[in-house]
Design brief:
three-stranded antiparallel β-sheet, alpha/beta, 2 domains, Oxidized Rhodanese, domain 1, 13% strand
């Protein structure tokens, strides 16, 4: 079972500092807004053994994991648990709840278009293209079927393969390394793991 902590419960710890937190969202999402002190380690690059080894003596202390709403961070917590690390804690509600609770954040360059919106546009275009191409050959109906199945799987598993692919597109990578504003900037634990 994954341990969780609400942002309200985390508030005193946030003010005190000295905690380890990783944000498992994509880099563009992270650079838009992230919890002060969080380190970006996208879920698709997560290596639990390496992260715990890098913590040294602090590996016995809780590692807090955050994402946008809590789904991807719960997946990351499960990956840590499968690797034998039970001192990981999911930040319930993710960055959206963190911001709503008024906890400190770093803000960077806002994405021109959210990743979620890009996925909806891409999926919609694929469905329309497959439907029109089916007039030429009925086998093109496979395209909307695969996209629909992918969206259904993403909803059921709380993961998004299209989102991972779209996050790696050049227009989304251009946000990496841009300065963050707000308390603390992007340095001091707020950077992004490569």
């Amino acid at each position: 079972m994954v341990s969780t902590i609400s942002c309200q419960e985390f508030a005193p710890l946030s003010k005190k500092g000295g905690f380890d937190m990783i944000d498992v969202r994509t880099r563009p999402e992270f650079y838009e807004v992230h919890a002060v002190g969080a380190l970006c380690v996208p879920l698709d690059t997560l290596n639990s053994e390496m992260i715990m080894a890098s913590r040294g003596e602090r590996s016995k202390e809780p590692l807090y994991i955050i994402c946008r709403t809590g789904g991807r961070s719960a997946q990351a917590c499960s990956a840590f648990a499968k690797a034998g690390f039970d001192n990981v804690v999911n930040v319930d509600g993710g960055t959206l709840a963190w911001v709503a609770a008024g906890l400190p954040v770093n803000r960077g360059t806002k994405m021109r278009m959210s990743l979620e919106r890009q996925v909806r546009i891409f999926a919609g275009l694929m469905i329309v293209a497959g439907t029109f191409l089916a007039r030429l050959n009925p086998w093109f109906l496979v395209v909307p079927g695969v996209v629909g199945a992918s969206l259904a799987f993403g909803g059921l598993s709380n993961s998004c393969g299209m989102g991972v692919i779209i996050a790696k597109m050049p227009w989304n990578k251009s946000l990496q390394g841009q300065a963050c504003s707000g308390s603390g900037g992007c340095s001091g634990g707020g950077g992004c793991s490569q």
